[in-house]
Design goal:
single chain; 12 strands; 230 residues; binds manganese (II) ion; four-stranded mixed beta sheet; alpha/beta; four-stranded parallel beta sheet
């Protein structure tokens, strides 16, 4: 099976007064062209789908265009929310979308969202982890000792009881660091602070049970810790 991993589309973004709609439409068409050319089976969208919690009309129209063109081609979509997205707005219509194989997780509710994707003889369990903060997870897993984002993600994955004999893929939107090194920032992330505190950093080794980890949040493409964590 062939998966395409994208993230941080930031639909609706403008640079000062300069509207990026035309550029973003062009980008989405390029992605759709690649999906066609490469016979992609599923697209993973790793958060920050929209640039703002209240997306513009142009932004919602662009996402609608992208998703409906993927659905037309019978391509599956797996999408999580990022720190820029509003849970409710991105979740809008998600029950209906599932009938078109568009799977969205925008809020951790105590259970890690999972879907099994089958393509011919290939099978993979796709897990969706929306952007989480430690305090949100503590609420659902009161018995776990959660002080950092790393504790939170480990507690979520522990509870999810992942079957290592399967092909496991995770889609997530967090600040993940390598063996000791931070990821390389692109400068356009707007992470909220000048420097990311240790509380927000997650060690790549908490994803050891996954064969591939499709991350968003950091805008420059790279591997983190090992080549399957990207
Ligand atoms: Mn982003």
């Amino acid at each position: 099976m062939k998966l395409m991993h994208v993230g941080d589309l930031h639909l609706g973004k403008s640079l000062g007064d300069f509207d990026l709609t035309e550029d973003q439409e062009y980008l989405l068409d390029q992605l759709l062209g690649l999906v066609e050319k490469q016979s992609v089976d599923a697209v993973l969208i790793a958060g920050d789908v929209y640039d703002k919690a209240v997306p513009s009309e142009a932004a919602t129209r662009m996402l609608d265009y992208f998703l409906s063109n993927l659905a037309k081609r019978n391509v599956y979509v797996y999408m999580v929310s990022g720190n820029h997205d509003s849970d409710e707005r991105l979740n809008y219509g998600s029950d209906l979308f599932e009938t078109n194989h568009i799977f969205i997780s925008t809020k951790y509710d105590g259970n890690l969202y999972k879907q099994t994707l089958k393509v011919g003889k290939d099978e993979a369990d796709i897990y969706l982890l929306p952007f989480v903060k430690a305090s949100q997870v503590r609420h659902f897993l009161p018995d776990a000792k959660i002080e950092s984002y790393d504790d939170a993600v480990r507690a979520i994955l522990d509870k999810a009881d992942i079957d290592e004999s399967k092909n496991n893929v995770l889609v997530a939107h967090q600040f993940v660091m390598g063996k000791s090194e931070d990821p390389e920032l692109s400068g356009s992330e707007s992470l909220g602070t000048q420097s990311v505190g240790t509380v927000e950093k997650i060690g790549y080794d908490c994803f050891d049970k996954f064969d591939y980890v499709a991350l968003g949040h950091i805008h420059s493409p790279q591997q983190v810790g090992r080549k399957e964590v990207r």
